[in-house]
Design goal:
Elements lengths: L1 E5 L2 E5 L3 E6 L8 E2 L6 E2 L1 E5 L8 H8 L22 E4 L2 E15 L2 E12 L4 E5 L7 E2 L9 H13 L3 E4 L11 E4 L5 E6 L14 E6 L2 E3 L5 H12 L1
Antiparallel strand pairs: 1-2, 2-3, 3-6, 4-5, 7-8, 7-11, 8-9, 9-10, 12-13, 13-14, 14-15, 15-16
């Protein structure tokens, strides 16, 4: 890694990307993401690419997704199934009824999807699919954990100088657990987040760690960020 400072910028060059960030004192110096056009303090340029992207868009691009403005919903282009779960600003909902009906609008007969959604507190609401812009589908539990993601976590922990072991349950992520030891012998338990906590716009943020002495729970982070989090708190 090479780092240079000039004109209020910090430039970091790493094997997979180049990172540019403003020095906080230069508040008039901002970047604009070329995909979602949001203002940000730092931008990434992935290896072999020419576009400068904000952290969220760079993460999506690195995971084979199309970066860009964050939409209001991430519903699939199909009818939702009973027992699927969605998240909205009001909480988590479960689809308890899914029906395709015919409606007449502007004199034209059209098809529409009608759903009965049950909130986590138990009350029910009826929604038409086209009106559910604030809902997005929660992915099936643990479908986002792969062996490559597990290998990435192990490599990140090793690179951070942390000793670690796993329980060899990569084929059943529901029971997958990692144990890492920090510089001061602090013990951390690392597990993949369940689907309900997975953010599809930050697909690398898959892991959460807990230390019991003293008690601390990390945010949901990527493999590299989690390894740095454990190393810094344990130092």
């Amino acid at each position: 890694m090479s780092v240079g400072r000039h004109f209020g910028l910090v430039i970091s060059r790493m094997p997979r990307l180049t990172y540019a960030a403003t020095i906080r004192a230069s508040e008039d110096c901002r970047f604009v993401c070329s995909a979602c056009y949001s203002n940000c303090w730092g931008v990434h340029r992935l290896h072999g690419e020419t576009a400068w992207l904000c952290p969220h868009c760079a993460d999506m691009k690195d995971n084979g997704l199309v970066p860009g403005p964050r939409p209001f919903n991430t519903q699939p282009p199909r009818q939702l199934s009973v027992r699927e779960q969605l998240r909205s600003p009001e909480g988590v909902w479960t689809v308890t009824s899914s029906e395709r009906v015919k409606t007449r609008e502007d004199g034209t007969l059209q098809h529409a999807c009608m759903y009965v959604l049950t909130h986590e507190d138990g009350h029910e609401e009826e929604w038409r699919g086209r009106d559910m812009a604030d809902f997005h589908l929660i992915p099936a539990e643990f479908e986002h954990i792969t062996r490559a993601r597990c290998n990435e976590l192990g490599a990140a922990l090793t690179a951070a100088g942390l000793s670690w072991e796993d329980n060899a349950r990569q084929d059943t992520p529901r029971r997958l657990t990692y144990t890492a030891t920090g510089p001061r012998a602090r013990q951390w338990t690392i597990r993949p987040v369940p689907g309900i906590d997975f953010d599809p716009w930050q697909p690398s943020n898959l892991w959460q760690a807990v230390c019991t002495a003293p008690h601390h729970r990390s945010p949901v982070l990527s493999a590299l960020a989690l390894a740095d989090h454990i190393r810094e708190l344990s130092a």
